[in-house]
Amino acid sequence: MQYTVVFQPAGCRGLVSAGENLLQASRNLGVAIEAPCGGGEICGKCKVIIDSAMSNLSPLSEKERKVLTPAELAGNYRLACCARIYGDVVVFVPEQSRGANQIVLETGRHVALELKPAINLYYVELNKPTLEDFRDDFARLKDALLSRFIQIDKNITIDYRVLLRLPDVLRQSGWKVTVAVWNDTEIIAVAPGSESKAYGIAVDVGTTTIAAYLCDLVTGDVLTQDSMMNNQVRYGDDVISRISYCMMNDDGLSLLQQSVIDDINTLVKRMTGSAGIQPDHVFEIILVFNTVMHHIALKINPQYIGSVPFTSAIRESVTVKAREIGITIAPGGYIHCLPIEAGFVGADNVAVLIAEEPYKQDKMTLIIDIGTNGEINFGNRAGILSASCATGPAFEGAQIKFGMRAAVGAIERVKVDPVTKEPEIKVIGQNTSDHEEIILAKGICGSGIIDAVAELFKAGIIQADGGFNKSIKSPRIRQGPDGKFEYVLVWAAQTTIGQDITITQKDVRAVQLAKAALYAGAKILMQKQGINKVDSVILAGAFGSYIDKENALVLGMFPDCNLEHVVAVGNAAGSGAKLALLNKDKRIEAQVVAQSVQFVETAAETNFQTEFFNAMYLPHAKDSFTHIQHILDKIPQC
User: Fold this and answer.
1) Measuring CA to CA, which residue among 256, 264, 255, 266 is closest to residue 288?
2) I need a labelling partner for 173 at 20 to 30 A (CA). Which of 117, 299, 337, 452 fits?
């Protein structure tokens, strides 16, 4: 039996099967509802309001009774992941539950390189076949290539799809053609006449966002770049949620794989359209991603990455025909995936390493890439150690009461006056001009929560152990519904959600746990290197580029370092992917790096718990922070 469901204010309606929950129905009807846990009945973010008979839904679950406030229960709130449909229903999606498009960082640091792509174009003119020279078409083409270009492999092959059209192309072109050859070993395209254009695309597939770069393989120029949300976020914000979705649904892997392939094809179409070229003139794509995204994109079961000992199906680089996984570029075109390091350290980390090249430097460098997953590298030319840190989704706002993506309406910057305790905030999309629209706050994103907790600490509102200073008298410091202290960052009247946006004790603890995992991981890598200080810190990824590095150090997200030697490099994974696209030697380098980097399972180290506990303090229970001591000395002691 099916029932009609209407989602407002979008006005989307459709028939759904009895027993489906509202979150599943929203996905099927294209309505974006925030569900960081992927519908696992964990996060409590997918709140909706029922505008019709509640009796057409399953009874309130224990989870809903625990998460929803009395006022929300009285106002017909339900959790979309829990409420199952047993009759026609009208659903209103409130502002705070609506999916928002995250701001995507596309830019990275420019790195000079020698242009040496895997794709080369060769123009040849062939003699027509005669009764005296009746070589087949492929032999004729191969002989012409080998006679003019000594670098071409004598055992060169031809792609099957290209072979199907070869007789027609040769004859219709008057036996004058341009041949696209992959790694000088395989003919992947034959075009009439003389062609001088070949294109490739580098793609960084993140858990939340996807960034892509269309490059000219002849000049090395980046013609255009584009980005979008990874549409898999509908099925969960983190990799564990995606693995769970694949495990719990028979068609889960196929659905998630098709989702990311559709996203990549969309970017290919948009970028080639913008540049005025045809998608079938793109001959190669380089993909970098974390290990779970890698497996899902290649349609490999990711289940075993999610449990001890976190084993991947393959660590080496993977090269497949684009058509085999449904990516629409040149029929003979290739997909090359950089190698991965370990279960939770993927090709994106390898891409960061070949872009920043810490293994060619003397100074001891700590590289932190905080995306939805936290990865760190530490070392120099003597050796690199890497680790994956279980920072959890707090830095993405997922475990924060009013947390949200870095989208329009998110608080991205916070300052707190140490005397008045009054905050000053900056909201994404907020215009300062009096003549432009004023964007009110909807929630707080990762950079905002880092600022908020650091500023509360600097203002003396929270103490080094993370607890609120209960002796401070301010209307903004109060006890929340759970009886625990919280700080009102924005009053309800200045928000779009009609609620006070607060920083709760639980929020502070979530940030402490996340930063402690990061710090403890870095500390263990330093100990294994026999080093007690870092010379420089590189912050990679979007989050690293937007956070206030001084406040990050005040929190103790990473060990003490001269702030002048702390740099943000943007999307280093994207930069690494471009390097691998434009210089095939970088792919060999990536393979060597992936094999030589020593992965450390920090959580399994005997001293991890001690380091983690000490790192829970702000900025740390024992370690000194000489470079920000002047800031720490000014913290009011109430």
Assistant:
1) 264
2) 117
pLDDT tens per residue, range 470-490: 999 999 999 998 899 999 999
Rounded CA separation 517/555 (Å): 13
Report d(CA 239, CA 172) in Å as an integer: 51
What is the C-alpha separation between 471 and 638, in angstroms, rounded? 7
Which residue reads 């800031």 in tokens? 631
pTM of the full structure: 0.81
What are the percentages of helix, strand and coil residues in the chain, rounded to 5?
Answer: 35, 25, 40
Largest Cα separation within the chain, whole Å, is 102
Report how many helices (DSSP H) and strands (DSSP E) the chain contains, helices first.
17, 27
H/E element, 227? strand 222-229
* DSSP label of 60: P
Give the three-state DSSP class for 235.
helix
Strand partners, 375: 369, 388
Residue with tokens 């040149």: 330
User: How far apart (Å, rounded) are the C-alpha atoms in residues 52 and 392?
Assistant: 37
In the beta sheet, which residues pair with residue 580?
Answer: none
Distance CA 346, CA 338 (A): 9
User: Quick check: helix, strand or coil at residue 253?
Assistant: helix
Contact predicate 312/339, CB 8 Å: no
Show Cβ contacts of residue 530 under 8 Å, excluding neighbours closer than 6 positions.
none
Q: Which residue has the tokens 């890698």?
A: 294
Q: Please check whether residue 340 is in contact with residue 350, taking contact to mean a CB–CB distance below 8 angstroms.
A: yes
Please report the beta strands in 344-476, taking only residues with DSSP state E, as ranges in sequence order: 365-370, 374-380, 383-389, 410-416, 423-427, 443-444
Phi, psi (deg, nearest 5) at residue 234: -60, -20
Q: Which of 198, 352, 218, 242 is nearest to 289 (CA)?
A: 352
User: Does residue 335 have a pLDDT over 80?
Assistant: yes
Coil, strand or helix at 489: strand
- What is the spatial order of strands in the sheet that 443-444 belongs to? 423-427, 410-416, 443-444
Instruction: Tell me how far the alpha carbon of residue 510 is from its chain's centroid.
Output: 20
Residue 313 and residue 295 in contact, taking contact as beta carbons nearer than 8 Å: yes
Q: Which residues of 547-580 are buried (b: 16+ CB within 10 A; e: fewer)?
A: bbbbbbbbbbbbbbbeeeebbbbbbbbbbbbbbb
Pairing relation of β-strands 119-125 and 176-182?
Answer: antiparallel
**Does the CA dihedral 419-422-424-427 come out positive or negative?**
positive
The pLDDT value recorded for residue 74 is: 86
Q: What is the pLDDT of residues 230-267, one digit of tens each?
A: 888 778 777 888 998 899 889 999 999 999 999 999 99
Residue in this structure with the two tokens 């004598």, named with its chain if needed: 154
Smallest Cα–Cα separation from 448: which of 103, 188, 205? Answer: 103
Q: Does residue 600 register a pLDDT over 70?
A: yes
| Residues 217, 117 contacting (CB under 8 angstroms) | yes
| DSSP one-letter code for 462 | B
Report the C-alpha gap between 572 and 486 in whole angstroms: 37
The C-alpha torsion from 355 through 356 and 362 to 364, rounded to 10°, is -140
Contacts of 129 (CB under 8 A, 6+ apart): 135, 137, 140
For the chain, state the CA radius of gyration: 27
